[in-house]
Here is the input.
Amino acid sequence: MKFSNGLKWSDVTPRADWLNRRQLIASAAALLATPALAKIEAAKSIYSTDEEPNTFDQITSYNNFYEFGYDKADPARYSSRFTVDPWSIQIDGLVDKPGTYDLSDILKGVALEERIYRFRCVEAWSMIVPWIGFELKTLLDRVGVQSSAKYVAFETIVRPEEMPGQEAGLLNWPYREGLRLDEAMNPLTILATGLYGEPMPKQNGAPIRLVVPWKYGFKSIKSIVRISLVADQPKTTWQMQNAREYGFYSNVNPKVDHPRWSQASERRVGAGIFAGRQDTLMFNGYADQVAALYAGQDLAKDY
Ligand SMILES: Nc1nc2c(c(=O)[nH]1)N[C@H]1C(S)=C(S)[C@@H](COP(=O)(O)O)O[C@H]1N2
Ligand SMILES: [Mo]
Here is the structure.
């Protein structure tokens, strides 16, 4: 693994510098209004990139969350009615301790970490996001995965009265995703509960969403209410929508183009207009950590 000097961008930049003036004013106002809202304490991680994160504004205003609409601005615009507290997750299937777990109980005893990850959407744009979260493995180990389980299936909440895109029937709800068990257990795979030290903004998948940084963004399912351990590969939303264009694995791969566009390069959101596109990296730059998961698998056929 390439964690050369151990120093990360976040070590050398005071937190206040992360925020632009407008955010500083907004968060100062928020602190005055709600003194209980403390910054999340989170340890740094060896898995973080030292690339410069996108701004809080960029990460929270350019989103894909079809439950709130198709447009990149819709999730920020239409998610104010969405309520995320209280929240519970049903964990079922091939586990020793199935049940409906309150999010606050899940969070007791997990150590939150900051993970600054590259994030690459299948639409060929990318960002750098400083997530706060914990490894999915921690939760799976706690509920006891049975040996017959080979995959993990995830579902997003269905609440059309709070989600105009569900009301309008933009996709087949609930939004569904899945991972192979070894992918789910990889230390890079996290459940994120915040970003930039703040609780997860609604448009980014509050209160808890998956982040799988070596796969296209649509695998990172938001606002999770169900996690099922299963024996067979689960059907996922985008695969059901168009299996030829969106495979189950959907690993970031510059050599396997989308049927309608190239995946060889990407546009970094927020880069200046003269910055140009950058090369897309195999497994989004995480090959050292995950390539072994796919040894012997034909990634062009089995995408
Ligand atoms: N439930 C749900 N999860 C979702 C989506 C969605 O529409 N609904 N969009 C996916 C896509 S295509 C991307 S690129 C990422 C975007 O995450 P972000 O808005 O935090 O950048 O969320 C993914 N998770
Ligand atoms: Mo995406």
